[in-house]
Fold this protein.
Amino acid sequence: MAGLLEVRGLRRRFANLIALDDLSFSVRAGEVVGFLGPNGAGKTTTMRAIFGLTDLDAGEVRWNGASVSAGDRRRFGYMPEERGLYPGMRIGDQLVYIGRLHGMSMDDARRAAASWLERLGLADRVNDKVESLSHGNQQRVQLTAALLHEPELLILDEPLAGLDPTGIDDIGAILVERARAGCCVLFSSHQLDQVEDLCETVIIIDHGRLLETGRVDDLATGGARRLVVRVEGDRDGSWSTGLEGVTVSQVAGGEVRLILDEGVDTDDVLEAARRAGRVTEFVMQRRRLSEVFREALR
Amino acid sequence: MKALRFAVIATAVVLSVAFRLWRRRRRRDASASTTPTRRHAPRQFVASDVGLVMGRELRERLRSHFYLLGTIAIVLVVGAAIVIPTLTHPKSTSESIGVVGTLSTSTRSWLATSGQAFGVHVRFVEFSDVAHARTDVSSGRVDFAVVNGLELVVKTGISPGDTSTTAYIVQALAARLGTQRALAAAHLSAQQAATLAHSAPVPIVALHRAGPVKHVNATSIIGVILIFVMLQQYNTWILMGVMEEKASRVIEVLLSTVRPVRLLAGKVMGIGLAALLQASVVVAFALVVSSVVGSDLLHGTGTAQILGTLVWLVLGYSLYSWVYAAAGSMAERQDQIQSLALPLSLPLIVGYVVTLTAASSPTPSLLLKVFAYIPLTAPFAMTALVGFGGVAWWQFALSALTSIVCTLGIARLATGIYRRAILRTGRRVRLKDVRRST
């Protein structure tokens, strides 16, 4: 199921708004790729462009070296940001219908629907209408609709939004599993901790432009050093202000996360912390994805 | 009618050829856009996604309670329209005439012949006295009585507008007996009397041939009403169906795998099939009931006329469905739909009202003839023109062809609007919003 999605030089303007500005990136089979950006960055427009749902002023979407065709798109799976299924249609009928639109036979679609519903704990709801399900379960059915035909490319717009921790774990596990099976998985999310756990690679965009892309490990180990310090009795990290070459990244629960410039000596920082109280934690850490994200947007 | 039958067949052939050409082109496009290296390319699939959408629409309509209840309601209304007139004016197959005293053989024979002309068998009941005859007339056992060839006794007075068989026979018989009585009083010889009896009107010489006075038949009026009701109903289904897909956001999932034009075509055809099925049930029911109760309403209606009405139902639906589909894609709430529905239904209402008004006149008006070639009003006007008779096959075919060409143009335009409006959510989309892009 090897595949390669290439997005090349996408440009799109809506009246006075530039939604995509020469955006290019690629997604390889076997990877879970996080697609990140603030609201209005152009993530949904990009995903829609992959499925031909928006006109492009310029650029091209390619799959395995050729322009994406209608036939290709039937082998893709899509979970749009604005969820939607027929509210009054039975879940089983609905999944079979969508599976068949993706080219499955009636029997295959039925089997796949039964199998996915069983796995997601919804086997007994096959004859229920979608509108009778809870939000989380509707989301599971929506994901099933995107997975049913074993897509070669899976595009999910905010698949984790509104889910409880169990739901996030379930869907996360499925995304990783599909990638391991050789599928290209691209999903957007604002939950950066989950993205960091699930993704090998991230793409960060803003104002329709690519800001940063790379493997999560590479991005985490790149950039300035991070130092986490905890001083007994200190809640606001005030001891660290004024240290030359040191920037406070985050203060939470008494833990101070510092960004150190290249020439900063950690012994000087430790000394400053000791003057404030007993040091209970002093450890170098990788960049968090949230820091990569914020720094990319600066 | 023979010409009309030919026109219907010709239209069917044109539609069939157009569909085959379109399908062949679709296949060619599909094979050109699919590279041979792609795996899992579902063969024949391109031809079937329209079928899948169509199947879902048809299935969901047939399952819906509204469809079932709607069909029952229309069937009941049509049934009532056919049955009730036969209850208020029961159609008799025999005419019983009471006779008191003597009634000449020639008059009896004339009455029998007159009865046959009205499709009734005349039966004579002899009475010994007037009292008995009056009693039986009063009770309805006989339709009227002739007393000594000098007087006729009826149950209720005959009004000028009475068109019943009894009224016709009574009035004609009263005139005949009066003439016979006058002839007898004139003491004419047998030869003179015979000459008068065989009098014939003098010929009328016309300098210009009069135009044929035609009245549209009842079937066409019913057809026009049926087309109006059904177009309103089925197009509302399209409007609501498209709007619901947008409102529920399922549309984005569908459009990620089916092209807008094919999704819309499947929807239009699926709902159209449900509509045609309902119309066929109603027409079949009307024909059966009409035959069982012996209604005059569909009397003399040819297969071609019924097929002609169905053809215009299909053509009208095909045209308007695209317009309503495009409109549905611009709204996502009921209140937004309402502001769209009125302007959309205006051409339907104008076509319908003008046609019904024109149909009540003895000859088809110029406006009706013009409307018969305007695709938006042709479903009503051409159906009525066919009812007037005298529509040549080429006129029917020309109007149908104009409608098909116009439908293709509107379908293209509607698909463009649909594609650009369907993913725009929030406020109602306006036409200026869809001039460019999604």
